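Your task
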Amino acid sequence: MTIKFVLKSIGILWMLGSPLVFAQNVDAVLNHYKNNLTQNEQLDPNATQEGKTLYLRDVINKKGEKISCHTCHGLDPKTQGKSKAGKIIEPLAPSANAQRFTDIKKVEKWFRRNCRDVFDRECTAKEKVNFISYITSVK
């Protein structure tokens, strides 16, 4: 066996196994954030409503623009949205897009980016729990 063959084989096995290794369900992602609440944060009994409020909240960003989560994702998280650059954004609600909120790395990447764009800061673990609670409640 050549080293090239071994490396290709490892790569193929990794690619085949990676969905199994990295695929997580929404509950696992939600529990990740619940487990990362700070001492000052508590689970909100109205998490779903608080998440909806967060999703619909209009703010003025540092560029002076009125923006919210629904600016790009649309008022209905079950439908496609559109980025400011015109790129189609697949539905946010897992009921319409089974891939949403299943990969913690992707979820964290997009929370980091979008929270900074909308709120000019990173979202707290509590806000993430509330947000996911709302989005997953949309059927």
The radius of gyration is 18 Å. The CA atoms of residues 27 and 102 lie 8 Å apart. The chain is about 55% helix and 5% strand. The longest helix spans residues 3-22.
